[in-house]
From TrEMBL:
Lineage top rank: taxon: Bacteria
Region (Disordered): 34-59
Protein's name according to its UniProt entry: Peptidoglycan endopeptidase
InterPro entries for the chain: CHAP_dom, Papain-like_cys_pep_sf
Biased composition, class Polar residues, residue ranges: 37-47
Domain Peptidase C51: residue ranges: 85-149
Pfam families: CHAP
Record keywords: Signal
Gene3D superfamilies referenced in this protein's UniProt entry, alphabetically: endopeptidase domain like (from Nostoc punctiforme)
Position of the signal peptide: 1-25
Amino acid sequence: MIVKAILASALLAAPVGLIAPIALAGGTATCGAAPTESSGAIDQTNAAPRPPSEADCKTPVETSERLPGAEQAVARALRLVGSHGYYQLCARLAANIWGRPRAGYFSAAEQWRQMVATNQAHPDDREPPTGALVFWETGGPYGHVAVYVGDGRIVSNDIGDAVSGEGGVYLVDFELIESQWGARYLGWAPPIYSTT
């Protein structure tokens, strides 16, 4: 526990802003500037969020039924269901669900690698807490990430599109990514985003 706190402090103080958590402090304010919402979608024109301070944020630790801030994230996720414009933008969708305008990673695969490298990943764990980012290897270079909303369900993009390029947002069963796309489940991680 002390090692995690020291690691989190070092990462938050790093001059290059390697990673910082996007958990909610005290359950009321998001780390960084909160994007505005319009018609259930996140406004993509917002300025870059400020880097969170140590006082603002804490890294979610230990698996629990719900990550800090998950209630607000799930509410955002459910408001986004039925919207469009997320074609091949799973990392952005997950970031938007967690109140961020962008993920800060080139792809879901890169984000997963970063979570593994910083010991934030929970490989092969099929019991993510509510609000967790869940990752799959898709056979391509980008991978896939969605947000677990509880009861065996995720909010994901593209999975229900009738027409390629639609970029729809859907509430679906956790296993559908594997059964429909043939993807391999990697595991889950807390919502930690780049500050740059």
